[in-house]
Amino acid sequence: MIIRVRFGKEGALRFIGHLDVLRTFQKIFRRAEIPMVYSQGYSPHPIMSFALPLGLGLSSEGEYLDAEIEEMAVQSPPPASLCEAPSPASGGGQAVVDEVAFPFGEGGPPTQSVVDEVLKRLRAATSPELPVYAVRVLSEKAGNAMASVGRARYRLTFREDLAKPLAAAADRLLAEKQHIIEKKTKTQTVSFDLRPCLYEVTVIRAEGSGEEPHPPASQDDPLFAPHCLRIAQAPPPAFPGGGEAVLLLVLSAGSKANVKPELVWEELLKTAGLPAEEKPLAIRRLDLMTEDGSSLGEV
Amino acid sequence: MRNLALSEDILNTVEKPARYVGGELNTVMKDPSAADLRFAFCFPDVYEIGMGNIGLQILYDQFNKRQDVWCERVYSPWPDLDKVMREKKIPLFALESQDPIRDFDFLGITLQYEMCYSNVLQVLDLSGIPLLAKDRTAADPIVIGGGPCTYNPEPIADFFDLFYIGEGEVVYDQLFDLYIRMKKAGAARQDFLRAAAGIEGIYVPSLYEPLYREDGTLADFRPLFEDVPKKVKRVIVKEMDRVAYPVSPIVPYLRPFQDRVTLEIMRGCIRGCRFCQAGMVYRPVRERSVESLKKIAVEALKASGYDEISLSSLSSSDYSELKELVTYLMDECAARHVNISLPSLRIDNFSLDVMSKVQDIKKSSLTFAAEAGTQRLRNVINKGITEEDILRGSAAAFHGGWTKVKFYFMLGLPTETEEDRKGIAELCERVAELFYAEIPKEERRGKIQITASSSFFVPKPFTPFEWAKMEKKEEYLARAHFVKDNFRAQKNGRVMHYEYHDADVTVLEGVFARGDRKIGAVIRRAYELGCLFDAWSEQFDDAKWQQAFQDCGVDPDFYTLRERSAEELFPWDFIDIGVSKRFLRREWERAMEGVVTPNCLERCNGCGAGSYGCGICPTNQNPLEQAARGMRGAAGKPAGEADGSTAAGAGEVTV
What is the pLDDT of residues B353-393, one digit of tens each? Predict the structure, then answer.
């Protein structure tokens, strides 16, 4: 059966490249003793594919991977070494958190129990900075994660004093019919139209103060807060505080047209007449979506 | 979430930022306020190299098992970050907590090869710790060195407060207890160092004084105080099964040099090759039991998720229960989709059978550490491999489907002549001819490929060759060119490829290997001139080193081109490794006569390591076990080593 895993990248993991994350997940699955299906051939490798690489330095709560796993018995508890609650001294393991209700995996038993088991084991085997949020079984007709990606949602945090000019720039950009950009590749310069790649460009300014920046994760368990699953449908987050503003972007992503959030940021600066040296304070990927805008976690 | 020591801007601009952020699987996080002693474990090279070190993993695990100690890691920042840290005055930090090294109690530096010495100074410098131990105060960490290079710590003695001579499992607890006790009592740094000198295996360089003769050789080397021992005895683990092994190794995100579980099956080597320092300083041989290894292997694979496991030792074929271990691992690994890598195996039916099961024959190659081109010279170095062994092993491998053969040689060995250098290409030619003779045309799967590489021999302390002279750089190159021309002249020259190592580095290694305290100033000067990452050929700058020698008025030839007299007192003679200087000298004399010395299982040669009273050592064995091993030892002579490293690297666990 093929499962889809939603995971995030936090802290140090933001600086781990795509191939290294891929290799790490192969290790996490083996640590979790989840029986993987292997490819044929002389050097078999686990069948696993990732939706879309994330740029170095970006955090995320909306990463996906698909993996093919063997049928597994769920009654048997995972091996003792992985079950043990880690001592306070050990940062390697992850305490198994309480089960929460997920919108995924409606197949009912026994599929649900397999999903629960896989989730539990992955969480015990991963590191706090590579949180695993949810697992579901993919239906036969669902396309793989990589092929399904059509859009990506990002949140850019930046200095509040830029909010006003950037909001105006966003309005102007969205009012354009087309927005041609020259893109330099190694060999040539190609031009393409950015405008149809923009699904959402929203600046949210701070109002009042003291409100937590998004995500308003619960303090006791910030990594595994169940709200993370519903981000795709959630209304835009509460106003950030502390002199920071937020830019929400939904952009074309995947194999057909892939627009990086940094590019849109640069275009907004240009449009607003701001110096190109201005950088966002942080960029976070919130979710990946299909061509029609539904979250990859819900397909 | 942890705070990172480097800003987003910096991390986004340096090459491979993953080197500096920590947070890997199985790393240990603790509450710093709960630790009485914070230890920064440094491997003074880039992250990917250092992460593969098994000694680091062993001690990290061991130290962190103590509630009152938190051990973290630090590596050398690559030159791009080095520059940024200097410009922005960012102090060097540990990966786990990202806290500055300067605030730690200990900075432990593992010294795996001489060419890391400039990096040691970089680590101290970036940490804001005075380079010279004598300039340090109560505010600085205690800087302790360990690892293979401590068998002659003198060239870097000025930079260290302490050296740990021997295997890390033995006296660190004692050292930590002492430190914590004295720290709580408010003792002075100097008093702690003096007390530490009383622990077996701990060398405190500031408590000793070298006296030189006019000719530059050592006249005396003596402790400054009566309570400081004259000799420092290497400490070793007596029973391997009684010390823990890291079953939850740190699993790096960034692909390291060794991306696998390393299973150390034994320490030491029975063989007694005369050029090999590891073969002398890790005596006697001590094995882990096969039952404990099976358990460790399974646990480590589970806890790490690695898809490969490799056996580590100086000579795996000499492990007494190799068959049982390998058979077990093959079953376990097949079930888990895990690969096995088997370095330094003697070529026989068993090893060929195992290798054909675990490796892709088409891709893998067979490696012979022949070391010398003629039997005469192989006898001089006591390399117990004959041409017949090589040809027989090659033939078996050719029939098994292998077509790639690698050879390792050394140039500049004592007594080497032109005959020996000619012998290198001739031996390879005979192996090539054997392929065509043994394998009928229609059965050949691809053509044979022979790769031979030679390094230049560097005499090491505590080997029978510690008296030997080296050559000038030009002479090394001339010899290598001669061998290269020889290869071209062979009938099968087109299927043979010959390469040789850098000669500049060889000469410098020679100086460091047998240098004295006068070398410290040169290392410091070279560092000031900008030397860094000397183990990386693209970073190594010989001109700067030559400049440093000149600036300090030190003649490198004194250390390399001189054959030492039998009576000479060596800078490292204050260390007692168990093996006696008398034995080494006897071996030197036998080498000059071209006489082979049997291995430890065949006969006890009275090397002195028996004084430890442990291990596979004929002097200490109970008679029954002795008999069993004796029979096995007589049965097999080494027939070369298959795919993997030669005797370097495995073995010792050290900081």
Answer: 887 777 766 667 788 889 999 999 999 999 988 899 899 98
Average pLDDT, chain B: 91
Q: What residues does each domain of chain B span?
A: 8-233
Task: Answer for the pair B613, B620: CB distance below 8 angstroms, yes or no.
Answer: yes
Report the gap between the CA of B303 and the closest CA in chain A (Å): 6
CA B359 – CA B356 distance, rounded (Å):
6
> Which residue, among B438, B443, B371, has the nearest Cα to B406 in the 3D structure?
B371
| Helical H segments across B5-116, by residue range | 8-13, 47-50, 54-64, 79-88
B44-66 pLDDT tens trace:
999 999 998 999 999 999 999 99
What local confidence, expressed as pLDDT, does residue B642 receive? 36
Q: Give B196's DSSP letter.
A: H
DSSP state for residue B139 in the 8-state scheme: T
pLDDT band at B630 (very low <50, low <70, confident <90, very high): very low
Question: Hey, where are the domains in chain A?
Answer: 2-147, 149-289
ipTM of the complex: 0.86
What pLDDT shows up at residue A188? 85
Is it the case that residue A233 has pLDDT exceeding 60? no
Residue A218: per-residue pLDDT? 37
CATH number of B8-233: 3.40.50.2300
Contact indicator for B284, B609 with CB cutoff of 8 Å: yes
Answer whether residue B608 shows pLDDT above 50.
Answer: yes
| Contact present, B120 and B518 (Cβ < 8 Å) | no
Between chain A and chain B, how many beta carbons pairs sit less than 8 Å apart?
106
Under a CB-based contact definition with an 8 Å cutoff, are residues B308 and B301 in contact? no
DSSP label at B67? T
Q: For residue range B324-361, what is the model confidence (pLDDT) as tens digits? A: 999 999 999 988 889 888 776 777 777 878 877 777 66
Which residues face A36 on adjacent strands? A69
Residue B268 is encoded by which pair of tokens?
A: 């030491």
CA distance B639 to B387: 9
Indicate the DSSP class of residue B424: H
- d(CA B81, CA B17) in angstroms, rounded, equals 9
Interface of B with A (CB under 8 A): 1-2, 4, 8-9, 11-12, 17-18, 21-31, 64, 67, 96, 248, 251, 253-255, 299, 301-307, 336-337, 360
Q: What is the mean pLDDT of chain A?
A: 79
Long-range contacts of A143-146 (CB under 8 A, 24+ apart): A143/A299, A144/A2, A144/A49, A144/A66, A145/A4, A145/A49, A145/A50, A145/A51, A145/A64, A145/A65, A145/A66, A145/A288, A145/A296, A146/A49, A146/A50, A146/A51, A146/A52, A146/A66, A146/A254, A146/A255
Q: Tell me the nearest-neighbour CA distance from A131 into chain B, angstroms.
A: 12
- Residue A242 gets the label, from left (phi > 0), alpha (psi -120 to 50) or beta, of left
CB B336 within 8 A of CB B300: no
Q: What is the pTM for the complete model shown?
A: 0.88
| Residue A10 near residue A230, CB atoms below 8 Å | no
Q: Which residues of B touch A23 (CB under 8 A)?
A: 253, 255
d(CA B185, CA B199) in angstroms, rounded, equals 19
Q: At B601, is the secondary structure helix, strand, or coil?
A: coil
Across A218-234, b (16+ Cβ under 10 Å) vs e yields eeeeebbbbebbebbee
Determine the length of chain B.
655
pLDDT of residue B542: 96
How many residues in total does chain A contain?
299
Inter-chain CB proximity B28 and A42 less than 8 Å: no
What DSSP string describes A87-127? PTTB-SS-PPPPP---S--TT-TTHHHHHHHHHHHHHHHS-
Listed in sequence order, the residues at least 6 apart from B135 whose beta carbon sits closer than 8 Å to its beta carbon are: none
A11 contacts on B by Cβ (under 8 Å)? 1-2, 4, 21, 23
